[in-house]
Amino acid sequence: MKKKQKQKLMKVIEWSDEDQCYIGSALPLIGPCCHGKDEMSVLRQLNEIIESCDACPTLESAQKTYTGKFILRVSPELHKTLAIKAQQRNTSLNRYCEELLLR
Fold first, then answer.
1. Quick one: how far is CA 86 from the chain centroid?
2. pTM of the model
3. pLDDT band with cut points at 50, 70 and 90 for residue 65
4. What residues contact residue 37 under an 8 Å CB cut-off, 6+ apart?
5. Which residues contact 97 (CB under 8 A, 6 or more apart)?
6. Taking the CA of residue 57 as centre, how many other CA atoms within 13 Å lie in the half-sphere pointing to its CB?
């Protein structure tokens, strides 16, 4: 990732009640990736992760417009199982799979 792209990342440091620590992420490309007892230590870790992130996708790919369609190959058995479950719920296979993915 180029330096300019790294600078455009939004650094987010949030308190997690569940983990009882601060959690850092760099949106839109890097989700929760570091933690610590104070915000400054998390920010230092986050900056190190961003600097070492040469294989991360670019901002252009994160901002790309997607069609909402992609092909997913599964076994014939899984295809049949999903189709039956969708039919039992009186919904389309596409809608049923979308609901499963959103969980």
1. 26
2. 0.51
3. confident
4. 21, 22
5. 72, 82, 86
6. 11
List the domain boundaries for the chain: 3-63, 66-103
Percent of the chain clearing pLDDT 70 (strictly above): 83
Query: What would the pLDDT profile of 45-62 be if each residue is shown by its tens digit?
Result: 998 988 887 655 555 566
Q: Specify the pLDDT at position 2.
A: 58
Structure tokens at 60: 């252009």
Residue with token string 């899984």: 78
The DSSP secondary structure of 15-74, one letter per residue, reads EETTTTEEEEEEETTEEEEEEESSHHHHHHHHHHHHHT-SSSPPHHHHH----S------
Give the bridge partners for 35, in sequence order: 23
N residues, the chain = 103
37 phi, psi to nearest 5 deg? -75, -25
Q: Is the pLDDT of residue 67 over 70?
A: yes
For 90: left if phi > 0, alpha if psi spans -120 to 50, otherwise beta; the answer is: left
